[in-house]
Amino acid sequence: MLPAVGSAHRHQATVELRLGVPPSSAHQASPLPHTAFLRRRDAPELDVSVEEEGYYGYTQRFYGSDLAAAYYVLSMKGAFRFVGQTEWYCPDKKGKFNWDFLNHRDTQLEEVNMNYTLINYTGLVNLEEQRSLRTLSVRGCSEVDDWFLARLHVLQDSLEELDISHCPRITTGGLAALRNLKGLRRLDVSSLPGISSPGLVIILLEEMLPQCQITATGYDLSLS
Predict the structure, then answer these.
(1) pLDDT tens digits along 35-67
(2) Within 10 A of 157 (CB to CB), how many other CB atoms are there?
(3) Of 87, 130, 159, 219, which is least surrounded by CB within 10 A?
(4) Domain boundaries, the chain
(5) What is the per-residue burial (b if ≥16 Cβ within 10 Å, else e) of 29-57?
């Protein structure tokens, strides 16, 4: 049983989690267009022009939304697996990858691993059409924040496993958005330095997602 927490912290964490708080604020040459956009849209310090914002629509129109999503993941140095396949596609240490994934047009992504990449809120748009996406891992992503969690509702009909551990910009208030993911079966919220009263937060997450197995390591849950 988790230890009790102070009443002041208990009230604050309960309000934030139950009601929600406004979220705090060089690879291989490619045959696909606008490759610079893929790198830039997830780098907050760089401006994204209106012309570059057309990347996803352009690629989707000529290659389909599934290949556009697959290419985005690889370009961000992530990895994925198609529905019905065992093979994972991922870049090597130099960021180069196998182009065989282009042979799987109209095949959706089932698992995506974006651990320690620069994916952020705006980059998530590239995965919005993946209605078969069951597993998403963004462990250790420095740009994943409360806004990112709020946007995950687009995957609420398919997502079963989510790893948001070790993401420094996630706060207690942002976790409230996870209540939209009713199909979630596994959730890892380990080592989130931005959350307060972790013992209470874990209890509230278990109440909010009773069908979900929650992993939460890396916290000091002892009484102060």
Answers:
(1) 333 433 444 433 333 333 345 666 678 889 999
(2) 12
(3) 87
(4) 13-20+32-215
(5) eeebebbebbebbbeeeeebeeeeeebbe
Quote the CA–CA distance of 167 and 189 in Å, as a whole number: 9
State whether CATH 3.30.70.100 applies to domain 13-20+32-215.
Answer: no
What span, in angstroms and rounded, lies between the C-alpha atoms of 187 and 117? 19
Residue pLDDT, tens place only, 64-100: 999 999 999 999 999 999 999 999 999 999 889 988 9
The residue to which tokens 């309000």 are assigned: 15
Query: What whole-number distance in Å separates Cα of residue 170 and Cα of residue 100?
Result: 36
Q: Residue 144 to residues 138, 153, 164: CA-CA distances in angstroms?
A: 8, 15, 8
Contact 146, 177 (CB under 8 A): yes
